[in-house]
Design a protein that fits this description.
CATH topology of the largest domain: Immunoglobulin-like
CATH architecture of the largest domain: Sandwich
Helix content: 25-40%
Structural class: alpha+beta
Largest sheet: 8 strands, antiparallel, barrel
Distance between the termini: 23 Å
Number of helices: 12
Strand order of the largest sheet: 19-20-21-22-23-24-25-26
Number of domains: 3
CATH class of the largest domain: Mainly Beta
Radius of gyration: 27 Å
Shape: globular
Strand content: 25-35%
Low-confidence stretches: 1-45
């Protein structure tokens, strides 16, 4: 039985490989220390690079029993919800410090990499004494038709949460865009008296129109610039969208250009992605600019996780235009860099690599950039470079501009050969997450290239590694691997190895087609026979039963796969009704039960 129809072609966007190196050891003081301040304080505030801060969209797709596309996950997004402290924060005596640590690499996806290095960011700002600057927030809200329902409801909840965390001295305005753009709430200082007016304005946001994002950003930035001059504090744009622009200029470069120009005028951009249609690749590019960061919400719990815990730090830029240069020891090469987009990497003479991080933000969780070192090809069969623990593996230099006053700062550090002691907790966790990222990217690439069996084997091996890791913090990663393993087991014909409950016997029976929405090789009155031996058969309404109308099928709790036709349906079943919805095209087939098949 071949149920063929148009519209099943999907574009496969494969993530470009990232590149880079390793790190671990001592900082060298700089003559510019006096520009930072002579008082040394330590505390729990950390530093994190900008860009994607979670993989909420990727996780949401997996929960919906979809196989996400590989370009919807980044290493920095995966690591963004974890505290990856590298080195001791107490050792930092400056506004911005580098800390380094190295360990032996053991990445399943990159077996030739010998060393895994963490480059951590710290600050001497004391959390007990710190509070963010007064905030002039311009919320730019996509109210287009694609945002209707839960996405826009999440935006309203988000804005209400933001308002609950504003304080006297802050200011908020709201710009809406769909077909057209306008100021929905003019810049309004936050006071006890104005709070009710602000909340009423939020509740009045309604969905309509297409997605003219360019116009929305233009009005938003105009509002920000006009209100910035008289405001004593920081001004920031916060874009809420599902990132599906379909009117006007929709190329990412135009958004990036606007965001970069605004950042030069001290207006940063936080992108908040909402809804299942969220275009993660586009938003990551937009938010990885100077002054940019990205968060994703898929439910009400996400609203609290993002805003309740992170509002103050997500709007607090610490440094701009960080340039990190890494020069490895002779005999080694930088194999990969994780934690920053590949577009900000560049090669330098003598095997060195430069990384330009647009923005560093204050954070309650430590962030970092992670590198791997492999042997140069000429040394592939030679022994490891002879170097005792503590000796130099690489030199690292740092330069940056402080966000507060634009001062130029410099620092240097050395990556040391790892000692035979247990690596730090942050570095070990980062190593596990990088290993997971490589497997997630490989498995999703294999699946979307049509090799379900290879994807299943990749996720099976990843799941085994995560299950054997005793770290309790990794339970969300174990859940993610289980979901992808179960789905690819089902789709590759390995259902016997999937988790219990994969068989849904409620679909077994004889069903008559009552309604069709879309194009498919079925008609009203045709019957579908699904036996308990995994065989599906079509009987045409006049009783014909052609030889080619049967094939094997597999079923789990939510999906039915026709093995020969390579078609997957999401299904709903309730007593005498069965609804099949083709996973990619959306074709909908409604049926009524004629009889249950005998066992």
């Amino acid at each position: 039985m071949c149920w063929k129809h148009a519209g099943l072609v999907s574009a496969i966007a494969l993530m470009a490989a990232l590149g880079s190196t390793p790190v671990a050891a001592s900082s060298t003081p700089d003559d510019d220390d006096a520009a930072v301040g002579a008082i040394v304080v330590t505390g729990s505030l950390r530093v994190r690079q900008g860009g994607a801060q979670d993989i909420g969209h990727f996780r949401g797709e997996a929960e919906r029993k979809q196989i996400p596309f590989p370009d919807s996950i980044t290493p920095e997004g995966l690591m963004g919800t974890y505290d990856l402290q590298i080195g001791a924060a107490a050792d930092c005596t400056r506004l911005f410090c580098l800390t380094t640590e190295a360990m032996r690499a053991g990445l399943a996806g990159k077996p030739d990499d010998r060393l895994f290095v963490g480059l951590g960011f710290n600050t001497n700002i004391d959390a007990r004494d710190w509070s963010r600057a007064p905030l002039n927030l311009v919320a730019v809200v996509d109210k287009s038709g694609s945002m209707s329902g839960q996405p826009l409801d999440l935006v309203r909840k988000s804005l209400r949460q933001v308002v609950s965390q504003l304080r006297p001295g802050d200011q908020i305005s709201i710009v809406l865009y769909g077909d057209t753009s306008h100021v929905h709430l003019a810049p309004t200082p936050f006071t006890a008296a104005s709070k009710a007016e602000i909340l009423k304005s939020i509740d009045g946001i309604q969905s309509a129109g297409s997605t003219f994002m360019e116009a929305g950003l233009k009005v938003g930035y105009e509002t920000a610039f006009a209100s910035q001059e008289a405001f004593k504090g920081s001004t920031r744009l916060m874009l809420f969208t599902d990132e599906q622009p379909n009117v006007g200029r929709t190329d990412a470069a135009s958004f990036i250009g606007v965001a970069l120009e605004a950042s030069r005028r001290n207006v940063g951009l936080t992108t908040i992605g909402v809804g299942v249609q969220f275009d993660a690749a586009l938003a990551t590019r937009v938010s990885s600019t100077r002054g940019g960061n990205l968060f994703f919400m898929r439910d009400e719990a996400g609203v609290k996780a993002v805003f309740e815990a992170k509002l103050d730090t997500m709007v607090s830029e610490l440094a701009h235009d960080l340039r990190i240069e890494l020069k490895p020891h002779p005999g080694y090469r930088v194999s990969a860099v994780y934690g920053v987009p590949g577009e900000i990497l560049s090669e330098l003479p003598e095997g060195a690599v430069a990384i330009t991080v647009p923005t560093a933000f204050l954070s309650t969780e430590g962030g970092g950039v992670f590198f791997t070192l492999a042997k140069v090809s000429a040394a592939e069969f030679l022994p490891e470079p002879a170097a005792p623990p503590g000796s130099a593996l690489a030199q690292v230099s740092l330069s940056y501009i402080t966000a507060k006053d634009g001062s130029a700062m410099r620092d240097t550090t050395t990556v040391a050969v790892p000692a035979d002691t247990r690596p730090g907790d942050g570095l070990q966790l980062a190593h596990t997450l990088v290993d997971e990222f490589l497997a997630l990217r490989q498995g999703t690439e294999q699946f979307h290239a049509g090799d379900e069996e290879a994807a299943y084997q990749t996720f099976r091996a990843l799941s085994a590694r995560l299950e054997s890791n005793p770290d309790a913090r990794l339970e969300p990663e174990r859940d993610l691997a289980r979901q992808l393993l179960a789905q690819t087991a089902f789709l590759s014909g390995n259902s016997d190895e999937a988790p219990p409950g994969v068989r849904a016997m409620a679909v077994v029976g004889e069903w008559e087609v009552t309604r069709i929405n879309g194009e498919i090789d079925l008609a009203r009155g045709d019957r579908l026979l699904l036996d308990d031996g995994d065989w599906a058969e079509v009987v045409r309404k006049r009783g014909q039963r052609p030889d080619d109308e049967g094939e094997s099928y597999a079923v789990n709790d939510t999906q039915l796969l026709l093995a020969d036709s390579r078609i997957t349906f999401n299904y709903e079943v309730a007593r005498d009704r069965l609804i099949l919805i083709e996973r990619r095209s959306g074709v909908r087939v409604e049926m009524k039960r004629v009889a249950a098949l005998e066992e």
